């Protein structure tokens, strides 16, 4: 009887370590800049990334934006709150998070970028909109440059479907 108990205990312990495809060691850990540099090779993979929260959606809390740890780089990424997260509270702004989730991508077509530029050009002449519109037009220019360099008719935006996070601060 004692041997059966020990075998059952050993099997239970073995089944909880190493064989679970969702275990902590089964996904890749990245700094945000590293992740975005290899994002196309990790689409739909579970990854972990570290970043500082720059914004949370105030109404629903269903998304946040994280920024790279590097002061010289202002790279950011959107994180959608999955079922395991529920939501991101506004108190997280400024916090350093380790977020685990599934890496996804969204394509902005050349046509949608053209439409965006038309809207910005119309707004640009309104008082108080000059700075905002200049920044947006600069973003559009960068998108088009990326599309040309990568021979694409769309611009890629990477984001994460968040599964869980941990506050590191």
Characterization of this structure:
The longest helix has 20 residues, at 130-149. This protein has a five-stranded mixed β-barrel. It has four helices and six strands, in the order H-E-H-E-E-E-E-H-H-E. It has one domain (26-167): OB fold (Dihydrolipoamide Acetyltransferase, E2P) (Beta Barrel), CATH 2.40.50.140. It has 169 residues and is α/β, with parallel strands linked by helices. Helix 3 runs antiparallel to helix 4.
Topology of helices and strands:
Layout: H1 2-16, E1 28-31, H2 32-37, E2 46-56, E3 63-67, E4 76-81, E5 96-109, H3 110-123, H4 130-149, E6 154-167
Parallel strand pairs: 1-2, 4-6
Antiparallel strand pairs: 2-3, 2-5, 3-4, 5-6
For the secondary structure, the number of strands is 6
Q: Which segments are poorly predicted (pLDDT under 50) over 5 or more consecutive residues?
A: 1-25
Number of spatially distinct domains = 1
Helix content: 25-40%
Query: Pairing-aware structural class of the strands and helices?
Result: alpha/beta
* Biggest sheet strand line-up: 2-3-4-6-5
The total of helices stands at 4
Radius of gyration: 21 Å
Mean pLDDT: 82
> In what range is the share of β-strand residues?
25-35%
Q: Terminal Cα separation, in Å?
A: 49 Å
CATH top level is: Mainly Beta
Shape annotation: globular
CATH architecture: Beta Barrel
Helix-strand topology string: HEHEEEEHHE
CATH superfamily: Nucleic acid-binding proteins
The biggest sheet amounts to: 5 strands, mixed, barrel
